[in-house]
Amino acid sequence: MPPIRSQSSRNSTEQEGRILLAIQAFKNQEISSIREAARRFNTPEATLRRRLRSVQNRAISRANNHKLTETEEESLQKWILSIDSRGSAPRPSTVREMANLLLEKRGTTPVVSVGENWVTNYVRHPLLSSQFSKRYNYERAKCEDPKIITEWFNLIQKTILQFGIDPDDVYNFDETGFAMGLTAIAKVITRSEYYGRRALLQPGNREWVTVIECTNAAS
């Protein structure tokens, strides 16, 4: 069921429409005075005068407390999505540093900066979200080609059929590792479409502690 506008919202929308019609009529000299335009279109005269002085409607204007312009926020969003697509979703502190860099590039004095909680409000954007990450080895990530995986399983199935291997003789062997000196979990800014922990690629040349498991296919 589609959302239903409240009565106050509908009234505001209708009034905005009348104001726009009054402005158009006055600028086209169809009505000679602002007072008469306000009367005919049933709009507050003071509001109509403000709008004729190019004061934008507050409901559609950008909030005064926005530190970045819309263009700057869009650029920051594209940067986040770009590095996230390469497996390196940025931490909130990194996003804040990038926002401050954009503000610094304006060349204004004094230099404006965003606050500690600015990123929390910024990631309310529909395309972004804040999630906890998990470390993911770069070499393993390179092996996530669906074509390669499918070919490997096809080869396994072919081998089982070719040699008549019994399920009791099929075992799965796997290992996982923990990188020494790396934090396993960190909060990052990533795409809102992702659920669960976001995988972060990491170099494969770290010292690892390895855990090995083996299980039978028939169990």
UniProtKB/TrEMBL annotation:
Chain ranges of the HTH CENPB-type domain: 60-132
Please tell me whether the keyword DNA-binding is annotated for this protein: yes
Claim: Transferase is one of the keywords in the record: no
Entries under InterPro entries matching the protein = CenT-Element_Derived, Homeodomain-like_sf, HTH_CenpB_DNA-bd_dom
Q: Which GO terms describe its molecular function?
A: DNA binding
Top-rank lineage group of the source organism:
Eukaryota
Q: Name one GO cellular component term.
A: nucleus
Q: Which PROSITE patterns does the record match to this protein? A: HTH_CENPB (PS51253)
Q: Mind listing the UniProt keywords for this protein, alphabetically? A: DNA-binding
PANTHER family for the chain = HTH CENPB-TYPE DOMAIN-CONTAINING PROTEIN-RELATED, TRANSPOSON
Tell me what this protein is called: HTH CENPB-type domain-containing protein
